[in-house]
Write a structure and sequence with these properties.
The chain has 134 residues and is α/β, with parallel strands linked by helices. The chain has a single domain, classed as 3-Layer(aba) Sandwich (Rossmann fold), CATH 3.40.50.1010. The two termini are 21 Å apart. The model has no long low-confidence stretch (mean pLDDT 93).
């Protein structure tokens, strides 16, 4: 199963970098076994505020979340995700939010996470991190 980080979803709607926008849109459209992590959905709605200057509204952000929920499996975190995130922060020196995403992926049995924000330390967890923009 595959998941995308918030940055990928933002790029789909961000016209400032046409190359990244096209790559992100193609990736999101191609994932038939996608997992929408609860944290990513929440972060997307919050971060999409930065796109209001380009005409992207909060209503559009919520519509995108609803659309992705209809296409992909949605995973809500358990308290075990927070506990695992604490371990990941200590073991791999991940930031809190990165550790939460990795822990949520591991709990949801995601094998590949598409993101431009992780270094190689997260890969030590067994989760494959792919930067779709390289």
């Amino acid at each position: 199963m595959n998941a995308v980080d918030t940055n990928v979803l933002i790029y789909v709607h961000d016209p400032r970098d046409a190359v990244k926008q096209a790559k992100a849109a193609q990736l999101v459209a191609s994932l038939t076994d996608g997992v929408l992590l609860w944290q990513v959905a929440c972060e997307f709605v919050a971060a999409s505020r930065k796109l209001t200057a380009f005409g992207f509204t909060a209503e559009q952000a919520w519509r995108e979340v609803h659309r992705l929920r209809s296409l992909w499996v949605t995973r809500l975190p358990s308290w075990a995700v927070a506990e695992r995130a604490e371990e990941l922060m200590n073991q791999y020196r991940l930031s809190f939010w990165d550790a939460m995403i990795v822990a949520a992926c591991l709990e949801a049995r995601v094998t590949q996470l598409y993101s431009e924000d992780f270094d190689n330390s997260a890969a030590a967890t067994g989760l494959t991190i792919i930067n779709p923009f390289i």
